[in-house]
């Protein structure tokens, strides 16, 4: 197949490229060349801004287009309309954040999505989900019956630039006392980028269309499983000593959920369903999951090769030490 990928050099995009190449497909990248421009020297690269430069491929036809970087409905509409006569299949990478109500578990693809009170293209915590939902509709309106709208949960694994999952294998690898939320049985759902990428290419090959929730695994795993796998993969000089800390204490100290303490979502009614998403439709359509242990081990191996940097997510070491001292003093 001839596949055009919008993006393709940061995280999920590069895994989709790898999966497509491994299966013998011909891949072209369309992006601005601002991130990892030297990646994939063997591939054709078209440099441009999708809002104004798509005419560079106006005389081309592709079997499939993969949109990994659409956030604004107007832009997605423009892209999908442009490729409507130039490709057979269009993948749009959306998110489970489209859902408007997360108070119940088992949310499937028919669950209501969020809406905007006022038209906007500004991406914030409140508008991100509704904008993605509008992007889904824009793509489907432009190419009825030919769009694969995939809704991942938290995407994790090697090349993740966010640290929202990587924090835990890396923190355990550092050793010593580790602050962990005292929620051993609370569920977690994530999707390894490589599993999502392989399934996306499978969908292109098999003309799978429609809307699919795509987080995992089929049954959420509890926090205790994540911590066990992080312990198993770690090789710290100072043995790991997890210190469970109550959610009440974390709230009292205004510890930020999700980003400051990655994966932790306080047990509140409004977020109950976030880690209990129904993915059976995707599983029935071929989505498969590698083991949590493999994801943890591979992510840690990748992290060890990374240079020092300021990661967007994760708790600062000095704050963790201070919080642990205060917690133990009680």
Mean pLDDT: 97
Look up the CATH topology of the largest domain. Rossmann fold
**CATH class membership of the largest domain:** Alpha Beta
Q: Can you tell me the number of structural domains?
A: 2
Could you say which structural class the secondary elements and strand pairing correspond to?
A: alpha/beta
Portion in helices: 25-40%
Strand residue percentage: 15-25%
Poorly predicted residue ranges = none
The main pleated sheet reads as: 7 strands, parallel
> Which homologous superfamily in CATH is the superfamily of the largest domain?
NAD(P)-binding Rossmann-like Domain
From the alpha-carbon coordinates, what is the Rg to the nearest angstrom? 21 Å
The coarse overall form would be globular
The total of beta strands comes to 15
How are helices and strands ordered from N to C?
A: EHEEEHEHEEHEEEHEEHEHEEHHH
Strand order of the largest sheet: 3-2-1-4-5-6-11
**CATH architecture heading of the largest domain:** 3-Layer(aba) Sandwich
Helix tally equals 10
Separation of the first and last Cα atoms: 62 Å
Describe the structure in brief.
With 330 residues, the chain is an alpha/beta fold. The chain is built from ten helices and 15 strands.
């Amino acid at each position: 197949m001839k596949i055009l990928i919008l993006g393709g050099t940061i995280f999920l995009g590069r895994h989709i490229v790898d999966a497509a190449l491994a299966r013998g497909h011909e891949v072209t990248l369309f992006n601005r060349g601002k991130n990892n421009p030297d990646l994939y020297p063997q591939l054709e690269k078209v440099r441009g801004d999708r809002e104004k430069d798509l005419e560079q491929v106006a005389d081309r036809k592709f079997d499939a287009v993969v949109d990994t970087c659409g956030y604004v409905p107007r832009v997605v509409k423009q892209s999908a309309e442009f490729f409507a006569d130039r490709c057979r299949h269009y993948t749009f990478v959306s998110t489970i954040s489209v859902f408007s109500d997360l108070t119940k578990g088992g949310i499937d693809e028919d669950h209501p999505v969020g809406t905007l009170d006022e038209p906007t293209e500004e991406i914030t915590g409140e508008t991100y989900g509704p904008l993605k939902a509008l992007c889904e509709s824009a793509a489907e309106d432009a190419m009825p019956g030919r769009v694969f709208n995939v809704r991942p949960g938290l995407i994790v694994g090697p090349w993740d630039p966010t640290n929202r999952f990587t924090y835990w294998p890396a923190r355990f690898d550092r050793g010593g006392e580790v602050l962990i939320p005292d929620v051993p049985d609370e569920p977690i759902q994530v999707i390894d980028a490589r599993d999502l990428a392989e399934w996306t290419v499978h969908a292109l090959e098999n003309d799978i269309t429609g809307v699919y929730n795509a987080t995992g695994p089929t049954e959420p795993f509890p926090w205790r499983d994540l911590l066990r796998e992080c312990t198993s993969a770690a090789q710290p000089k100072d043995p790991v000593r997890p210190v469970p800390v109550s959610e009440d204490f974390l709230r009292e100290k205004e510890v930020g959920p999700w980003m400051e303490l990655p994966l932790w979502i306080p047990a509140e009614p409004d977020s109950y369903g976030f880690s209990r998403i129904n993915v059976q439709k995707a599983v029935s359509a071929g989505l498969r999951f590698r083991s949590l242990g493999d994801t943890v081990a591979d992510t840690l191996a990748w992290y060890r090769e990374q240079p020092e940097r300021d990661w967007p997510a994760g708790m600062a070491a000095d704050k963790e030490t201070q919080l642990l001292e205060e917690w133990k003093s009680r």
